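Hi U.,

Before I forget, here's the chain from the pilot set. I'm dumping it here mostly so it's searchable later in email.
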Amino acid sequence: MADLIEIEHADDPRLADYRDLRDVTLRKHLEAEHGLFLAEGAKVVRRAVAAGYPVRSFLMAPRWLDGLADELASTDAPCYVVPERLAEEVTGFHVHRGALASLERTPLPSLEEVLQDARSILVLEDIVDHTNVGAIFRSGAALGFDAVLLAPRCADPLYRRSIKVAMGTVFALPWTRLETWADALVTLSERGFTTVALTLADDARPIAEAVAGVDRLALVLGSEGHGLSDHWQSTADRRAIIPMQAGVDSLNVAAATAVACYVAASRS
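Structure:
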């Protein structure tokens, strides 16, 4: 059972995992150095624990202890109990979901493991906004996609904001990072996937037409600013577009993913 440890000072070194959560640069450095990530909210914490991530510690206000009593009863990790004002001082924001947990990262699976039983996957190139990455995971999980592959420069799915927006689906949907960027789509084609790039290219076909008849599908999505690189567009098997009206040429990448996943999920 977790030890409940009351803490009264923001500078207590035991709270280091939870400090300055709004400072993205600092958090990326700290989390990479110590191999940890943060989960926020009882539901997300439960999903992280259920996915097998070892717990380093919990941080909670007293009134939230009962909500995670079963998790606290099944772990030896310490639970730091702090007043809500102190939690806000340490983290840099109001912890309105009441509970935080620091968990250990585990090694990413290999590409072979992720693709083994997958029929529909998402492939992300240089999507750097954590909110978009989390939303993409949530759409993929909700609409029946089996896995996500990330180019080397994509934002971290285990960053707190990504996890929160994804509602913990980053723990349920298998994912890994591609070791190399240049030949990524060719490699997927060689493994039996039809790569369909979402793009505004002149030869792009409507998404429903582009995914029709595809068995193993890799839906390829590009960065927020410039979309897919010319190289990934040229090495994709097909190029697709979401038909637009009223003079709008594109959607935010997270919204576009949701639409494309919905269409792809019903392909015949």
